[in-house]
Amino acid sequence: MEMDIGISKKDRKAIADGLSRLLADTYTLYLKTHNFHWNVEGPMFNTLHLMFETQYNELALAVDLIAERIRALGYPAPGSYAAYAKLSSIKEEQGVPNATEMIKQLVAGQEAVVKTARSVFPAAEKAGDEPTADLLTQRMQIHEKNAWMLRALLSK
Prior knowledge:
Number of strands: 0
Helix content: over 70%
CATH class: Mainly Alpha
Number of helices: 5
CATH architecture: Up-down Bundle
Distance between the termini: 59 Å
CATH superfamily: Ferritin, core subunit, four-helix bundle
Low-confidence stretches: none
Shape: elongated
Number of domains: 1
Radius of gyration: 16 Å
Largest sheet: none
Mean pLDDT: 96
Strand content: under 5%
Order of helices and strands: HHHHH
Structural class: mainly alpha
């Protein structure tokens, strides 16, 4: 059955493509944050272990919201590591960096997600896609706050 939600197929495709990049960034950041939660060491262990857990749990919920929005627009959501590797602006960590480097990488990751979300906003706004605009606004608020909180740990 043909979809008729007041957004053209071309606009829905552009938005879904942008959301697919956001999904890939979010999932990659989830994986990196979970990895760092497992492997963090040092004097800030407990603080970071708990903070990373809070953040990866939130990211796990976010990937579902983003994927379901892509589906609501009529397109398949990417769901493989190979797809995420092609779409994500965040690079995976192959080793186990020290705690300070973990924080720096997660700040960069949080900010990367904000930039990706912000890049999708014009297409959603142009199409009058308020549900996507709302999702993007919420994601940007969360990631900007997380970046700030992580960055505060680096202050001397």
